[in-house]
Write a structure and sequence with these properties.
It is a single chain. The protein is an alpha/beta fold. It contains nine helices and ten strands. The chain has a single domain, classed as P-loop containing nucleotide triphosphate hydrolases (Rossmann fold, 3-Layer(aba) Sandwich). It has a five-stranded parallel sheet with strand order 2-8-1-9-10. α2 crosses α5. It starts with a strand and ends with a helix. The structure holds cytidine-5'-diphosphate.
Length: 230
Amino acid sequence: MQKITIAIDGHSSCGKSTLAKDLARELNYVYVDSGAMYRAVTYYAIQNGLISNGDLDQIALINALNDLNITFQKSADAVHPEVFLNGQNVESKIRGLEVSNYVSTVAAIQEVREFLVEQQRQMGENGGVVMDGRDIGSVVFPNAELKIFLTADTDIRAERRFKELTGKGEDVDLQAIKENLIKRDHLDTTRKESPLKQTEDAVVIDNTHLSKAEQLLLLKQLVADRSVTI
Ligand code: CDP
């Protein structure tokens, strides 16, 4: 079967990454978590004192971008590729609430987006890629053969993220997670640069009541349909 490009966009914490990872593994495609790249830049800003009292030093961050080397590598004991920042595995560090609280501010900066979108396009230039994010079908790969817009009920999304973080031993508050999701969705959909939006050619999937296995099956069917029609 011909290898296609699959773009999965949607709201915060609705399981895009889980679906994209499962699909990439089944199809033997490359998986790229574009959100992890925005999270890695945000982590860098926090670590390097570019955020103080809630204020981000945008100019300093833009000037530092060329010092950032973001890669995905699969460790021997990991199932999926993990994100590395300047050679350091930051996979677990970028998932916490501190990064989540600033990532949408960082992701709204045009220069940050240009820097990361160029790398994302290179990662997917040979096709056979599943990439998830907010602007993949609209900006990164507008010609993707399959575009998915994923969403789910806000309470369900907050509960899923709560379980994910507590499962990793983090001490988190469900209400704080829910507020973060609502805030990020607002910032992501209303920003000037590449806002999250549903493209006309995207297939909309609400996975509130779908299991992981059910959504994967649905996706595999869509991929099979697209692959025979191109
Ligand atoms: O996993 P979750 O849905 O919580 O978020 P993520 O995919 O890790 O993305 C984190 C944040 O990065 C989003 O809230 C967006 O602000 C930003 N992002 C973006 O602007 N464009 C992308 N292609 C991916 C993420």
